Amino acid sequence: MSLKNKVAIVTGGNSGIGQAIVLELARQGASVVIDYVAHPEATEALEREICKLGNQSLGVEADVSKLADLQKLIDAAVGKFGRLDIMVNNAGIAGTRALSKDGFDSTYATNHIGPFLLTSLLLPRLRESSQGRVVNVASAAHMMVKRIDWSVLERRAAPKRSGFADYTVTKLMNVLHAKELARRLAGTRVTTYALHPGAVASNIWRSLPRPLQWFGKLFMLSNEEGAETPLYCATAPELATTTGRYYDRRREVSPSPLAEDEALAKELWARTEAAVGRS
Question: Is 108 a catalytic residue?
Fold first, then answer.
C-alpha cells in the first residue's frame, strides 16, 4: 500500500526495532509519531533524519506504561496530523522489578495494558482511514505459556521481579489481543496482525544485568532484520484484506493453541478493560 499522506504511530520508536521501523516507514512516505520516555536527544536526531527524507515526524514525551500519558500522546498526534492509518505496538520490556505509575507490574503495563488502552482510544481515528492497520509486535516465546494467572493484571502495593515467564505471558496477550480485535472489527477497514520479529538485539532486555545483555545479543538479529516482519504487516498490499493472523519471517504461521482460544481472548479483553477502568 502507498504510504504517501499516511500517518503512523510507533511506540518505542526512538531506539531498537522501533527506530528501524520508523525510518523505513518515513522512507516509504509516511509521517511518523514517536513516543519516548528518556533520551530526547535520540528522538530529536531521529526527527532530523526523517526531515532529510522529506517527511514529517512528531516526538512526544510519553510513557506507554502510564495510562495518563496515553491521552497526551493521542492529543499531540491528532493535533498535528489529524488522522491515523498505522498503529505499531512495539514498545516492550522484560526482566523488570518495578511498578508502573498506576500500580501495575511494569512488564505487563508496558507490553500489554498500555498498548491495549492506547489502541482502544485510537480506534475511532483508525476507522476513518481507508485502510487502518494495528500491528502487535509479539514473540514466538508466547508458545511456552501453559496458562495465564490473572493476578498479573491486578494493581500491586509492592514490586516483584518479573522473569522470562512473565515476558512470555505478555507476548501471548499481544497475540490474543490482535485476534480478538480482529473479531470486533470484522466488516470495517481496520485489520490487525501479531508477529514474531525474531530474537533481536534490541533494548527490550535493558532491565537485565549487563553481562547477560551482552552475551545474549551475540546470537541475535540486528534491529533492521527484526523490523522486517513488523513492516511487512504494516505495509504489505497483499495483507489488506487479511486480519487477525500471526506472522514470522514475513510469512503467516500458526501461533500456539492457547493463542487460538477465543474464550481466553474474550476473557483477557474483559479483564484488561476492568483493570484500566473501562466498561
Answer: no
